[in-house]
């Protein structure tokens, strides 16, 4: 199967956009990702998927913690910074939630302790036990078919 065909098919699944953050050796690291999902309510678990060559992989393995920051539709620039799409160096100010670095203004900041790690293909899946959550109002930043998107205004549907 062709890699492009697979990527195009996966791109038809609209996702939210997150920035995964962690802190190792006193330095904050972050990466844009859309490979995130909730796993369990009891206990509260989430999973993130990190590519084998991503710099943040070893940092999460070292710290044993990470935060998932679900971005708002006003945070496309933050997504682009952490995706490496903006090349010039920009200073990013982080907030803190339960001592972990988080992206201010994110719709949700979810801090986690790594409870399991699984290597699958060219990615490592980290299962995170949720330790804290902070929520903000707003609309999500979306990604679909390789482009950033936002929600359209809801239309009232009248059934006859």
UniProtKB/TrEMBL annotation:
Q: What range(s) does the Flavin reductase like domain occupy?
A: 10-150
The alphabetical list of record keywords is:
Oxidoreductase
InterPro entries for the chain: Flavin_Rdtase-like_dom, NADH-dep_flavin_reductase, Split_barrel_FMN-bd
Under Pfam families, the record lists: Flavin_Reduct
Q: Name one GO biological process term.
A: pyrimidine nucleobase catabolic process
One of the record's GO molecular function terms: FMN binding
Q: Which PANTHER family is this protein grouped with? A: FLAVIN REDUCTASE (PTHR30466), FMN REDUCTASE (NADH) RUTF (PTHR30466:SF1)
What's this protein's name?
Answer: Flavin reductase
Q: What is the species listed in this Swiss-Prot or TrEMBL entry?
A: Mesobacillus campisalis
